[in-house]
Specification:
With 401 residues, the chain is mainly α. It is built from 18 helices and no strands. The protein is globular, with a radius of gyration of 20 Å. It is found in: Membrane. It comes from Sporosarcina saromensis.
């Protein structure tokens, strides 16, 4: 009994760390901008989009984390077991998408420091990149990373909660329109799902648990709870930002199209609100830098013993390259949008692989995957696959005309 409690206690920190790693990886600069943009467009009906996306996110996340845990393998190795070479394709997509997004994340960190201290975004991005690299220099990098994302996760949620109350949103209308929307936007649903569990993000916590040794059938209960908690943390942040934005626009105030989330914080709470935005933006960006680098590299570290041996150095190089590209080139908007759309394709591909793996005895042994989870997962694969392909065919070519 005593030993079990000790194991459970030591696991609790890891499970919480994995949940916050995933959640704060999702809550990046794009997350803040998308939420405020769609709230301004759809008003209270955006609550319905958030509700639908939460349901889809939980369905995708539970499937992925459970099969990673029960197979005791990372996603790329599961994919190679399903079909030789598939893991290399998945890893290439994740790393390319992760690198592009990390350039944007470094830019977001630079923007946060610019708001807080007035320094140029380039200098702020450089200092933030160096801080992120510093986390992986220390011996206990995993534990430091877990604590870092938890603390900043709580900071973001607490500050956004304060701004939400100062914005005085029409909560009754928001609740009503969440269940009876006047407008439904498919592109908003795709964007939110892609931003929460697209690309590398859905694997962040699952891979962290593998690294920490939380795996096997006996850990499934904890893994499932952690996976749902991660989505709820990210969704709480989204709901608070939605209500804060709704409060501002309901007063007839216009958001600055150049930086919608900053204007929400400023209009709701004046100059203090603007400084709070700086803290939230920096926290969102720097935790995404850490989560993105860690997870992207976790997709290649099993391919060769040397990659496994030097994986921390590869993570640091990944962050350094992202920082250098941001300082030299800036944020290449068209490339980010293109890779963002490709990121949307990673979810149906990866989740499809996971669902096939769930029924391969050589991967999961005698584990029986719940049928309702499989059906749920298949619906997500088909819906996200269709919507992502539609966006790539119809919207992306217009960017490069």
């Amino acid at each position: 009994m005593g030993k079990g409690n000790t194991i459970q206690k030591s696991n609790r920190g890891v499970l919480l760390g994995a949940a916050f790693l995933m959640a704060t990886s999702a809550i990046g600069p794009g997350f803040l901008t998308q939420t405020t943009f769609f709230t301004e467009t759809l008003l209270a009906s955006f609550g319905f989009v958030i509700l639908v996306s939460i349901i889809i996110d939980i369905g995708a996340q539970m499937n992925v984390w459970r099969i990673i845990a029960v197979s005791e393998k990372r996603a790329q190795d599961i994919a190679n077991d399903v079909f030789p070479g598939l893991g290399f394709l998945l890893a290439a997509l994740v790393v390319a998408g992760g690198l592009a997004f990390n350039i944007g994340n470094i830019g977001g960190a630079g923007l946060g420091t610019n708001v807080l201290f007035g320094m140029s975004p380039e200098v702020g991005g450089l200092l933030s990149g160096l801080l992120a690299i510093g986390i992986f220099i220390v011996r206990e990098a995993g534990k430091i990373m877990d604590r870092f994302v938890q603390i900043l996760g709580f900071v973001m949620i607490g500050l956004t909660l304060f701004v939400m109350f100062t914005a005085v949103p029409p909560i009754g209308e928001a609740v009503t329109r969440t269940f009876v929307p006047t407008e439904i936007s498919l592109i908003a649903i795709v964007t939110l799902v892609g931003g929460t569990v697209g690309g590398y993000i859905t694997f962040a916590g699952g891979h962290r648990l593998i690294d920490a040794g939380v795996k096997g059938k006996e850990a499934l209960g904890d893994v499932t709870r952690s996976s749902v908690f991660a989505i709820l943390v990210a969704s709480l942040m989204r709901v608070l930002l939605f209500l804060a934005t709704l409060g501002v626009v309901s007063q007839g105030l216009a958001l600055d199209p150049a930086n919608p989330p900053a204007s929400v914080f400023q209009l709701a709470a004046g100059n203090v609100g603007y400084k709070i935005f700086g803290v939230v933006m920096w926290s969102a960006a720097i935790t995404s830098v850490v989560g993105c680098a860690y997870t992207s590299v976790s997709f290649i570290r099993t391919f060769h013993p040397k990659l496994e041996k030097y994986y921390k150095w590869i993570i640091m190089a990944f962050i350094a390259i992202s920082t250098a590209v941001f300082i030299i080139v800036g944020r290449p908007v068209k490339i980010l949008i293109l890779v963002g759309s490709l990121n949307g394709l990673i979810l149906p591909l990866a989740l499809g692989i996971i669902l096939v793996a769930a029924y391969r005895v050589k991967i999961v042994g005698d584990y029986k995957h719940p049928l309702w989870m499989t059906i749920f997962g298949l619906i997500v694969v088909v819906a996200m696959g269709y919507m992502s392909v539609y966006t790539l065919i119809n919207d992306i070519p217009k960017l490069f005309q």
